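Field log, afternoon session.

UNIT: design team B
ACTIVITY: writing a sequence onto a fixed backbone
BACKBONE:
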């Protein structure tokens, strides 16, 4: 009963965190992105400070917290930005002041600050907050008043991130998870960008009550995105080559309910093709070649590691404290297991009716070798979408589909995304952005004499 209680609460109010749920912590406006599971014993290390994550339990997603220095240890306190500061940043009356000031006469010789490190330590021992330390640094800076307003904001933000870091509590869903992985470790999700992920779901026509066939070799991100869009209706079948399913570690971060987890099934390609006119022999030869590769992929952890969350590798991927400290909490609050073996009734239903759509994201496999075995499993007029980081495998697959006359409406799309910085008088494209988001081959299966 204790295992199902947190999950039932999450269904009643999914906008508020509960004990045992997964969260995405955005530290200092995107400087660090950390996946964590909330419990009474989980901790988060920010710089040289270790804070408990217990204050985050029961707070709505989108809440902002700030690290404060307590008597015993640092802690996270709820922070609400003052309205006066927002009005100053949003106002447009800074043009006249900037025209009369510039930074040409400012010399960076590390002598403008009169407040020493010993003075800052003394303020901390006396119980000064991070904001008070930032204001003291500004007051003791000899060049702060000479800077432009833009420079003053940058100086204030730099000191705030050091002495009063802030943590934004974000809800993990398809977009936030994909953006977090793409920012730090894009290779673990096959360089699948968020716009390419959304385009895959749209081109495959993933809607409610659909039966979607998925080949997910991007850590479970694609399977979780499909299950999230289905919303507890229909089913998503994650098929694989060989005898071992592909790792789906990312699905645990979605906070899926039991109803949605029951809709996620897995079945080997050999079992699916055996149900279709005994075509399992041809696939089994392909599976034997890929068995060793799939087992090696399972042993590779597909999630955020030490460089991203600044944790030791032996602590596990998502946990923020040693395993012995989190053992009690992890046993009490377990997420529902996502991905059960497809029952015979479901396989028989897929054999009779066919899948409503097909999505493939397998950067390590040849696209055509998968499509020629998976496309007959779809119903007629069913759409499909195939993602790959490079163009050449998709062009070869498209050429073979045209020769075999297996599909119509074939097209290869390249998603294009440009991120903008939107600030007063400083709106422009970001200086660093992704060059490409991969390629997507889409089409519609048709009836042929051979099928």
């Amino acid at each position: 009963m204790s295992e199902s209680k947190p999950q039932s609460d999450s269904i009643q109010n999914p906008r508020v965190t509960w004990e045992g749920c997964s969260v995405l912590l955005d530290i200092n406006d995107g400087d660090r992105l950390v996946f964590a599971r909330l419990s009474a014993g989980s901790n988060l290390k920010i710089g040289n400070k270790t804070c408990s994550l217990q204050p985050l339990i029961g707070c709505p997603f989108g809440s902002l917290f700030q690290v404060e220095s307590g008597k015993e240890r640092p802690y996270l306190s709820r922070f609400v930005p003052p309205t006066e500061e927002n009005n100053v940043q949003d106002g447009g009356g800074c043009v006249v002041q900037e025209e009369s000031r510039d930074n040409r006469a400012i010399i960076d010789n590390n002598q403008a600050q009169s407040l020493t490190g010993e003075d800052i330590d003394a303020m901390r021992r006396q119980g000064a907050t991070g904001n008070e330390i930032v204001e003291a640094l500004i007051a003791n800076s000899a060049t702060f008043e000479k800077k432009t307003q833009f420079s003053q904001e940058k100086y204030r933000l730099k000191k705030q991130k050091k002495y009063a870091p802030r943590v934004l509590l974000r809800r993990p869903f398809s977009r936030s998870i994909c953006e977090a992985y793409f920012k730090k470790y894009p290779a673990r999700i096959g360089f699948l960008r968020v716009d390419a992920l959304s385009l895959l779901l749209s081109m495959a026509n993933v809607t409610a009550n659909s039966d979607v066939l998925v080949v997910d070799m991007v850590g479970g991100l694609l399977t979780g995105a499909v299950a999230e869009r289905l919303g507890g209706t229909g089913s998503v079948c994650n098929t694989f080559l060989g005898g071992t399913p592909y790792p789906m570690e990312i699905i645990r971060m979605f906070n899926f309910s039991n109803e949605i987890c029951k809709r996620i099934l897995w079945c080997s390609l050999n079992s699916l093709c055996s149900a279709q006119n005994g075509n399992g022999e041809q696939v089994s030869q392909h599976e034997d070649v890929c068995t060793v590769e799939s087992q090696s992929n399972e042993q590779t952890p597909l999630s955020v590691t030490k460089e991203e969350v600044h944790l030791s590798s032996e602590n596990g991927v998502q946990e923020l404290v040693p395993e012995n400290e989190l053992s009690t909490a992890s046993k009490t609050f377990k997420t529902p297991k996502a991905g059960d073996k497809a029952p015979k009734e479901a396989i028989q239903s897929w054999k009779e009716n066919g899948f409503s759509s097909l999505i493939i994201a397998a950067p390590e496999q040849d696209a055509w070798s998968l499509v020629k075995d998976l496309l007959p499993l779809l119903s007629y007029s069913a759409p499909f979408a195939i993602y790959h980081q490079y163009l050449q495998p998709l062009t070869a697959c498209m050429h073979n589909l045209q020769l075999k006359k297996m599909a119509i409406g074939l097209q290869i799309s390249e998603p294009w995304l440009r991120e903008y910085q939107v600030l007063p008088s400083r709106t422009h494209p970001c200086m660093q952005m992704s060059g490409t988001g991969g390629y997507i081959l889409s089409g519609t299966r048709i009836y042929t004499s051979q099928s």
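LOG NOTE: The two ends are 50 Å apart (CA to CA).
NEXT ACTIVITY: expression trials, pending approval
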